[in-house]
Fold each of these.
Amino acid sequence: MKTLTEKILAAHSDKRKVNTNEFVNVKVDMVLSNDVTAPLAIKEFRRLGVSKVFDSKKVIMVPDHFCPNKDIQSAEQAKLMREFAKEQGINYFEVGRMGIEHVLLPEQGFVLPRQVIVGADSHTCTYGALGAFATGMGSTDVAVAMATGEIWMKVPPTIKFSYHGKLPEWVGGKDLILYTIGDIGVDGALYSVMEFDGEVIDELPMDGRFTMANMAIEAGAKAGMFKVDGKIEEYMKQHSRHYHSERVEKSCSDENAEYSRIIEYDVSRIEPQVAFPHIPSNTKPVSHARGVKLDQVLIGGCTNGRLGDLRVAAKFLHGRQIHSDLRCIILPGSQKVYLDALREGLIETFIKAGAAVSTPTCGPCLGGHMGVLAAGERCLSTTNRNFVGRMGSPKSEVYLAGPAVAAASAIQGRIASPEEVIY
Amino acid sequence: MVGLLDLVVRRYEKKLQLKGKVHRFESDVNTDVIIPARYLNVSEPGELAKHCMEDIDPEFTAKVNPGDIIVATTNFGCGSSREHAPLAIKACGVSCVIAQSFARIFFRNAINIGLPLLEYTESLDVIENGDILEVDLSTGVIKNITKNKTVMANPYPEFMMDIIDANGLIEYTKHQLQET
Ligand code: SF4
């Protein structure tokens, strides 16, 4: 009786069965890095004395963190990566055609259910939303994976999270994952896989699932997993370039698979959640957060920068104005999301409301550029981390929430619950 | 811990006996405070070291001396996958990090770049800021000279010892590649 993770890892290590905590050598289907982590990975790759990556079709580099280049040094890093990508003939998405890696890869059909993906970025776990086993690693590990197509792993135990009941209005994937991390803590799933299940998850749209898988790392998890169901199949039909040749097979953990823990939540009564500084587990229901004055609201990023998220924000911002004391920055997760939002009129809604809309970039999410905070400033962000100094000055504060709370707060100039704006 | 001696001798340039002053931190020290992302537009360890721990202890780089030891409670190194974090700590001269638990990506990265980590799951109340520790990487024995107390760290899993033995992941992989 196996978990989905065990099935995937067994299939990728040519074993009939793998056991929890066993060390295995795993074949990888995709290796990712970005303009911050690739330069180190390339340096280590060269030290290996290998001239070619193991399979140019299975290596991806995305210039998203400090790109479009924010200064000379980041331009040098991006250039190094661009030249390597060209030399190796790997997948590379230039500015103007790119997106934040974790929005871009699924949308461009690079992620298939039951694949194994490693990336030199901790939020690589996002792809668990498509039933892939995906995990973040450092640059040296990724260099080895680029060279050999394999990486060592310790088979992780799985914790199952079951969500029951009916989601209240304006409560989405972000609120579920914040609520969960608030419950178990930032090391509550250390070294484990978080598997998300239950009738609430069955109903949850793909965008919400990506948000949840994205933040598994914020509980210390190695991966966040969803079973491969009809919603994933539907997503693959629309997005996968491989779909016609490789049918998506439904798959999930066996019914009596061994979990290290099973945690059940009734979510019928939960409110939208807000994580207070300076740790993602410091969550409160929005009714206990109302009134905190804000200087900036950021909507987007790899956590909540998909079309569904922008649609939610636009519902609030349509025909209304951003509060005069506040900047609202909207970051579509990819060029495709940007264009789809433009066609739907969402971008016009944002601009008319007084928001700045940016080309896709990680930018302010990691305090890089495009909305860095000054000392004493407060930002509510739909991203995933609110550590000290994450978005700029170590004396600034970051609050995390979903797009409904973010948009409502942008209008009110302070943390607001969605009902205050749309009742 | 049998055999660890040989391995670590090669891995850490024969520096088995470490001695240094403690810089004490609490739980969930994340990679954003170890090396803020605003400095990640470069990747030279020396440059990164200038900003190590800046957002959690702005005096850290002024205080730290070669050989010093970072001691923290649980989940050290949580957050991003940046290998720049262990690189910055190592380039500051820190000889090892002792914690009750480590975040998993940080753990891999540190082993890969040769920053020794010791896991000690019991209470770390016996170690305070400024204490002088003697650490024997071969046995895992941590001796608090200031307080005259001795504790013992957990052993590394065998598989990781192979990597340590080979002098890190790059050398380990090089070796594997030559064999095939
Ligand atoms: S948007 Fe933020 S969390 Fe996501 S990949 Fe970029 S920097 Fe990392």
Amino acid sequence: MKEARTPGLRRPMLSDRVQEAVAAYLFLAPYLFSLVVFFAYAFVRTLYFSFTQYDLFNPPTWVGLRNYVALLTEPRFLTALQNSITFSVVVTAAQTAFALMLALALNQKLRGITFFRAAYYMPSVASSVVITLIFIWLYQRAGAINYLLTMALVYRRVLLVFLAGTAVLQVAMVLYERRRGQPASPLEPSLLVTAMLLAGAATAALWVAGVVTPVEGVQPVSIPWLNTRRRWPDGPISAPIPLEAIMLLNTWTTAPTFMLLYLAGLQEIPRELYEAASVDGASPWQQFRHITLPQLRHVTFLVVTLGLIGTLQMFDQVAVIGDQAPLESVITLAYYVYSNVFPGGAVPRVGQAAAAAMTLAVLTLVVVLIQRKVVER
Amino acid sequence: MSDAIARRRWARAGAIYLLLLFFSILFMGPLLFAVLSSLKDNPAEWPPRLDPPQLHWRNWVAAYRLGRAGGGSGWFGAFAPGAVVPFEVTYEVPAELAAQGIELPQVVVPRRVPGAGPGAVRTGPFAADYAEVVGPSIASRQEHPDGSVTVTYRFEVRHTGGITVDRLPVDVEVPRGYRFVEATLYPNRMERLGRVQSWNSITPGVIPYIFYNYTRVFGENYSRTTGRNLFLTWIGNSLFVATAKVLTTVTFASMAGYALARLRFPGRNVIFVVMLFSMMVPSQVTFISNYLVLRDGIFGLSRLWGMPTLLNSFTGLILSGLVGASAVFIMKQFFESLPKELEESARIDGASRGTIFRRIVLPLARPALGAVTILTFQGAWNEFFWPLVVLTSPQDKYVLMVGLSTFRRAYGAVGFDWGPLLAGAVVAALPVVILFVVFQRYFVEGISFSGLKG
């Protein structure tokens, strides 16, 4: 290409490469300002603060590793660290599985799929403050979640009869189909719909006949979801109930985002793979296990990485819930850092906060590196 | 046989739709329930109903008529000088009480402030000071065979002063045992075991009747120092900051993304690695220094335009968030997917890099620019942590999310006044939800750009 250029068009003063570099840095200037001042400088400075004692007003004094040592013995930091890790692992696992499930359900050629996709994505669109406020309301003692649980208790017999009926009918129909020589998987959807309809009709009939009745005299469920220090389950592996309430809400809001990534990934899997597999007689589960999952490996890597990064930073929910839950039950590393820099009336402990922030950063980077190693293998 | 296959296919589609519907309820249900409940007088009622009186057309008609009677318009009611508001309430009196004679209820226009939140500290003209209750009297009575009586009382509220008041609250108290049946307008609350029927306003007009909690959010929150309407101010602030961020981000991210995708220069890889790194590091790591940088006016630079500090200023908030790494990343990915030929031939024709960027590359980048615009607006509108750090006082400097988060304390100090809280949350979610419904394509594209192709 360069040979084709007429010499007259070349600027005489600067070589093309220098020109290109100058142009590039002009294009990049605003972003570099952001990146250097508000990221690189900030990161180095936090690292420096983590070795000092500093209160935002008087100049920082060097204390070496003392902040890090102090953190190891501070109960609140250890609680925050434990909460952050538990939260991150559980939510990432739950939302990844849930996102994949949603994407599989949505990956159909049916009318109205875009509507459903939009409906599922709605919780991801709204802000965390809005969602958290709504969930504080749902989690009240006399709130909708406890109400639904109460209703489940009241109608437990009806529900049980319906579910048992569905299961029995499904088994019967699958066995019947197989005896007729028709292939039928245990969860064959067409049979399941029939089973549910029949079981629903039977349950309704039994209810009207007075054989199956709602339980009377059920006390309203009044689980305190937020305002409690209790942990669940009992035992060595447990988490505070308020933190678990936030896990639930977080999974609910972020799973749809990752669903979109999985959906895009699913649409890129070549159809021929499935066609070849069904010719070879692979069951849907085998196809999922040996085609879908391996083909989605890179998406899963991305989803898990983004999930871990996102969940380790969880702050908004804790800040909005505020005194609705005991601090020890919900505090995360991110909130620990914030509350030490701006402790209300007390003197800011910036050094300690910076050390905790570096712990958070290192944790994030380690997580990403481990992920990379796993995928490369 | 083919019939059986067709039937199977239908049943399978039905099963999938059932599953999809189930998930829709799971994801939309809580949000729709919150929107519905934001209309209720008491969103924390037990058991929660799905048909609040605010959604009955009969009450809309009554609210319109009463709004007119109060001297306001039918849509926005008032209690204006010269108004005469007729009102009827019907009770059922059980036989043993009816035998002792039917008593008249007590009708009071109370001096009531709305709710437990900021509205409670407002003093203002009270309808009680200008209202005169005429009656009540018995308008009709119907005796039933079992001795019980259905009685309808009628009263009028007249305006006697010279000042228009926005609402006319009324309490009607009946003897113990009388059971409320119906009224010209359905009461907002039953108090004292059903003995008191209480209305927020008997001259509401349609909109304040249905959206009572919304009128409270917009009408109650005033700054104590400047007297400005806080909720409107916060919405304005959020709009301003989000718009500014969209403009800077779209411009600077496309420039930076183009340089990283197309130009060769020393330091390119270093910048790219630092950029990826910056996307991983939580903002809680960098905010300490960023707070100090803004406090000192970006190394004293802001003094040049007369601002000693950039804390509590939108300038600071915008300057510190000029362009995000993820936007640069999306643009870089997009430019790399474009064919190079156009740019190369323009280069041969002697066009400068700036011209190529403006005339050739940017027009092609419309889909990516759309995605960046939408995602940046959403991010800026929903952002909470950094504005919480930068904007602390006075209250009229807050952006909407920071302001909304203070509602939990403002309306939750004594018990919870959930109506305005939910209404505020719904209003705050509305802009991005509308944006999402209209520009759904860009959301989806943006997410797959930033994710998959990376």
